[in-house]
Design goal:
The protein is an alpha+beta fold and about 700 residues long. The chain is built from 27 helices and 9 strands. Helix 14 packs across helix 15.
């Protein structure tokens, strides 16, 4: 439930924080399991005690399988599959342990390979695939640095595995099944090591469950490597210290699955790491030097059988290093033109790109617009909530602007709380609507500044267009900047185009709006109503538009603009032939073409009045439709100014409820049904619903009840 404090900020309850895992089931499980591992080694290795050792070992291995499956069941559906596969791998692993230890201690089967080896080898594909899916979910995009670093370590591990494990095993001359099994184990371990390195070195969140999962991989791989080395030397004995490492690995997996943060292992990291850090450089450099070191050892020992493998590893490491350096250079260039906080382009990039876009427009005879966007009252957010909260506001605003910007447009952080946008091919008629769409997108929802508070944030926008307002980059930015200052001075949360700035400058210089001109247009609106035998139509539309805009909570300037547009929306009809305007029958296509011109006529007539350019744009758009099938510009959705969307509903209602030369007045219920049916096609659904709600409350009077009076 949301509340409001005395300062007017919204206060929302914080999330319910459960246990952080300390003292939870995972810790009890882990400590109990470790105690049982210690107890396992206190059980004497006698025939009488063998069943107890087998039961205890298999119980520990099986508990990890149960925990992994339970952890998979309680993760979010989108994160479940990796843990299902990891749980399946542990089930197969537990099966292998059960078959092996029962056969070894209770039946006396010691042959290698045997049935348990099929299960031990069978658990690897599930584990590898599960970890791969985790990596994919943790880094949905491309994490090339992590892949390259993991590949570097994987190449070295593969080389060492061949030289010291796989090669010697393959040359022992053992029976084919034994040789295949001996080679299969290090190959599978190598595959698991590769994905484990990808998980460790890649991006993504790193909660406690992540480190427990990595511990499982590290312990299992370490024990497997030692086991293979003991097999090569013929010294492996069941029940030695390797059992403790394998069991601890199983316990780490079970604890990871039981930990409260298990679901977070699949999350991306909130902030990507830098390209390289000193520790990673040192590790990669040391590992890469192992290949030539092994080559030197083989040279001095005279054992050159593996030289081709080591040389191939050296070549692969060289290519990986060159690729890593190229990627590092690319990252440095990206960082130079990308704002660290918002991820947008920097001002330097903006200033380099604008001349190029203007030159391209000059060659093609096109145009390019610059929009300067400034966050309103940003200093008060910093002062009240602190700079981290201000940074969160900037990041969120940048994301909202980015979601609205189209391909080919350049959005940059211009400095502080200011953003800039380059719009190639900007049309003079739709530029205000484009800027207003950005403004509405930013104001569409509050921004969370602390876990318990959010604030409404708005922006002011100034815009200028080449070649209309400026012919060089500096002038164009300066003119757009002056338009921004005018938007700030006029009350903020608005768009000012450079032509509006000229009007504002003229007013500041001592000129005043022409009251006679405004009164003349009002009389023209009344004259149109009289021609249509629709007395009070424009006044009713103005009144309802004001009521609707107020109902939505818009500022006084927007309410006044909607009201004026409603009052003057039909003034362009005065230029239509009288025979067309009052024709009692259906209009033909040519006559309809004339009627569709009246929004353009109204725009041109109203735009001549100082301070009425915004009203003129609303008049031009009031016959656009939500689905894009209106006129004159076939705008759609929120590309249409909100004032025009409001006037459209009010105008249609007045037309349906009026007696016109070409139609009788429509009954109230039928008119309501028409408005409801047109929501989402002709009308903005929110505006249509709000209008019908006002009408239901009795706030919308019939047109014939709205009589003439002073404007």
């Amino acid at each position: 439930m949301e509340t409001e404090n005395g300062a007017g900020d919204r206060v929302v309850p914080g999330p319910e924080h459960g246990t952080d895992g300390v003292g939870g089931a995972w810790l009890v499980y882990l400590l109990t399991g470790l105690a049982l591992v210690v107890a396992y080694y206190f059980i004497p290795e006698t025939a009488a005690a063998a069943p107890l050792r087998v039961v205890l070992y298999c119980a520990l291995s099986g508990s990890a399988a149960v925990a992994a499956c339970w952890g998979a069941a309680r993760t979010r559906p989108g994160n479940r599959l990796p843990w299902v596969l990891i749980g399946a791998s542990q089930v197969v692993y537990f099966t292998a342990d059960s078959v092996f230890y029962i056969g070894h201690y209770l039946v006396g089967v010691t042959a290698f390979p045997s049935w348990p080896d099929l299960f031990y080898l069978g658990h690897y594909p599930f584990a590898v695939l599960g970890v791969l899916l985790l990596i994919r979910r943790r880094a949905p995009g491309r994490d090339l640095p992590g892949v390259l670093d993991a590949a570097t370590l994987g190449v070295v591990a593969a080389m060492l595995s061949w030289v010291y494990l796989i090669g010697p095993q393959s040359r022992r001359g053992a029976p084919v099944p034994a040789e295949l099994a001996s080679v299969a184990y290090p190959v599978m371990d190598l595959a698991l090591l590769t994905v484990a390195l990808g998980l460790l070195l890649g991006s993504g969140a790193r909660p406690r469950a992540f480190f427990l999962l990595v511990s499982w991989l590290a312990l299992i791989l370490s024990a497997d490597t030692i086991y293979i080395a003991q097999q090569v030397r013929g010294v492996y004995e069941a029940g030695n210290f390797l059992d403790a490492i394998w069991l601890c690995g199983n316990l780490a997996l079970g604890a990871a699955a039981l930990h409260p943060t298990v679901d977070q292992v699949s999350d991306t990291s909130p902030m990507r790491e830098g390209p390289l850090n000193p520790v990673r450089i040192a590790v990669l450099s040391g590992v890469a030097l192992l290949a030539p070191l092994v080559l030197m050892v083989q040279y001095y020992t005279g054992d050159v059988r593996d030289v081709p493998v080591v040389a191939g590893a050296c070549a692969a490491l060289f290519l990986l290093t060159i690729t890593r350096l190229a990627l590092l250079v690319s990252d440095q260039r990206r960082l130079a033109i990308t704002d660290v906080l918002t991820g947008l382009h920097t001002r330097r990039f903006f200033e380099a790109q604008l001349p190029l876009e203007m030159a391209r427009a000059r060659r093609s005879g096109g145009s390019v617009a610059v929009l300067i966007i400034d966050v309103d009252h940003f200093k008060s957010i910093n002062d009240r909530y602190g700079h981290p909260a201000g940074d969160r506001v900037l990041v969120e605003i940048a994301a909202r602007l980015r979601s609205t910007v189209r391909s080919g447009e350049v959005l940059a952080r211009h400095g502080g709380e200011e953003f800039a946008l380059i719009v190639p091919g900007a049309d003079a008629e739709t530029l205000p609507a484009l800027a207003d769409r950005l403004r509405e997108q930013v104001a569409s929802a509050p921004v969370v500044v602390t876990p318990q508070r959010w604030v409404a944030v708005t922006v002011s926008i100034g815009t200028a267009r080449f070649p209309t307002h400026g012919t060089n980059p500096a002038d164009l930015v300066a003119i757009a900047d002056r338009a921004l200052y005018s938007a700030k001075a006029a009350g903020r949360d608005r768009v000012v185009v450079a032509s509006d700035t000229t009007t504002a400058a003229a007013v500041e210089a001592g000129e005043r709006p022409d009251p006679a001109g405004a009164e003349y247009l009002h009389r023209v609106a009344d004259a149109v109503d009289d021609l249509l035998d629709d007395h009070g139509h424009s006044r009713a539309v103005a009144r309802w538009a004001r009521m609707l805009a107020t109902e939505f909570g818009y500022d006084a300037d927007l309410v006044r603009r909607a009201e004026l547009a409603g009052r003057l929306h039909d003034v362009g009809k005065i230029l239509l032939p009288r025979a067309v305007l009052v024709k009692p029958g259906e209009l033909d296509e040519a006559e309809w073409a004339l009627v569709r011109m009246h929004p353009e006529h109204g725009f041109r007539m109203t735009a001549l009045l100082p301070g009425h350019l915004g009203v003129a744009h609303v008049i031009r758009q009031h016959h656009e439709r939500w689905d894009g099938r209106g006129y004159p510009d076939r705008l759609a959705g929120r590309d249409i100014r909100v004032e025009a969307r409001i006037v459209a509903v009010c105008d249609s209602w007045a037309a349906m409820r009026s007696q016109r030369p070409y139609q009788p007045a429509m009954p109230v219920e039928q008119a309501r049904e028409e408005v409801h049916a047109a929501r989402g096609t002709q009308f903005d659904p929110d505006v249509a619903d709000a209008f019908l709600e006002l009408h239901q409350r009795g706030a919308i009077a019939d047109v014939h009840l709205v009589h003439r009076g002073p404007s």
